[in-house]
């Protein structure tokens, strides 16, 4: 393991589930393990603030680059990005580390995968914190059918065609592509007719208030190396995931969970997230649930790092106190 120049983050690689996963780690090796799962277009680096806070509290923070991202393997087959593959990677990583149970903290696509990790393998999760993406139970039809009605301008629809988004992204340098996504503050990511989503999104000329130019450069370096096809394949198997998860129709998530909902996140109102969460719909599917609604946009763990850290630690502390009183 090699220590990062900043000091306490270690980096290592594990061969699991037929691929190589790069993992960043911080905190005592004997501390309670917290698995941090990033989203799109992100890396383990998205958890830098949480890793520091968790390590300071005595937790062992483990943040992999998911398959297709960063320094992990990038399988060429689009079908290799299904929910079974990603959850399989995570379970195999826990086996590699000989961890029977972990806490899970996840955001965006990572939150989607975390919910399914809880659903498929509740025996491996002590408790989960999901940011931005609630658990939606499998419906009678694929979400892709509903998205089709939104039109071609909707970013998820544009991501479906192999090569389309990659070609449009290539008109910009990688740092600009990332900055366009990181700067999103609109409710609906829908481009006008005939316009590619990456052309519609704007990149501010000034640095992001919650990310240094050096940090942006670190992201850009990795995406320059791997490209965007692996990450985009997560969107391209959404229909496949719906078909694969048929056996869990109607199943509830029994793992204790906390959902952190940013008020200005994508689809907060337009996609019905606010109504679903605040009306009790989410809690009906995740009975042992806490909900916290906070100010902020999509990349909340970086934008509002201190608040998110406090929300995570206050939730995890409950389990430490339970163990102490047991």
From TrEMBL:
Organism per entry: Paspalum notatum var. saurae
Protein known as: soluble epoxide hydrolase
Lineage: Eukaryota, Viridiplantae, Streptophyta, Embryophyta, Tracheophyta
Cleaved signal peptide residues: none
Keyword Ion transport: no
InterPro entries, A to Z: AB_hydrolase_1, AB_hydrolase_fold, Epox_hydrolase-like
EC number, UniProt record: 3.3.2.10
Its job: Epoxide hydrolase involved in the biosynthesis of cucurbitacin and mogroside tetracyclic triterpene natural products (e.g. siamenoside I and mogrosides IV, V and VI). Cucurbitacins have cytotoxic properties and exhibit deterrent taste as a defense barrier against herbivores. Mogrosides are nonsugar highly oxygenated compounds used as high-intensity zero-calorie sweeteners; they also possess pharmacological properties such as regulating immunity, lowering blood sugar and lipid levels, protecting the liver, and acting as antioxidants and antitumor agents.
Superkingdom classification of source: Eukaryota
């Amino acid at each position: 393991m090699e220590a990062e120049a900043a000091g306490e983050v270690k980096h290592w690689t594990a061969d699991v589930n037929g691929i190589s996963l790069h993992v960043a780690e911080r905190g005592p090796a004997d501390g309670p393990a917290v698995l941090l799962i990033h989203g799109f277009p992100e890396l383990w680096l998205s958890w830098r603030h949480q890793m520091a806070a968790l390590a300071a509290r005595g937790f062992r923070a483990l943040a992999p680059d998911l398959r297709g991202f960063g320094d992990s393997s990038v399988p060429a087959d689009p079908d290799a990005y299904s929910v079974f593959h990603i959850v399989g990677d995570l379970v195999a990583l826990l086996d590699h580390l000989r961890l029977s149970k972990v806490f899970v903290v996840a955001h965006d696509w990572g939150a989607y995968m975390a919910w399914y990790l809880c659903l498929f393998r509740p025996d491996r999760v002590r408790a989960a914190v999901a940011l931005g993406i609630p658990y939606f139970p499998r419906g009678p039809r694929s979400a892709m059918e509903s998205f089709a009605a939104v039109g071609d301008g909707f970013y998820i629809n544009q991501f479906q065609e192999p090569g389309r988004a990659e070609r449009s992204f290539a008109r910009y340098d990688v740092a600009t592509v990332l900055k366009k996504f990181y700067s999103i503050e609109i409710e609906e990511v829908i481009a006008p007719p005939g316009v590619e989503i990456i052309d519609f999104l704007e990149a501010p000329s000034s640095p992001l208030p919650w990310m240094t130019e050096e940090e942006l450069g670190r992201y850009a370096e990795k995406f320059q190396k791997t490209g965007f096809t692996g990450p985009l394949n997560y969107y391209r198997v959404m229909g496949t995931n719906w078909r694969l998860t048929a056996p869990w129709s109607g199943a509830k998530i029994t793992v204790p969970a906390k959902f952190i909902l940013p008020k200005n996140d994508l689809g907060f109102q337009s996609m019905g997230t606010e109504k679903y969460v605040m009306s009790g719909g989410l809690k009906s599917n995740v009975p042992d649930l806490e909900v916290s609604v906070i100010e902020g946009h999509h990349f909340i763990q970086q934008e509002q790092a201190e608040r998110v850290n406090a929300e995570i630690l206050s939730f995890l502390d409950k389990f430490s106190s339970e163990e102490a009183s047991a």
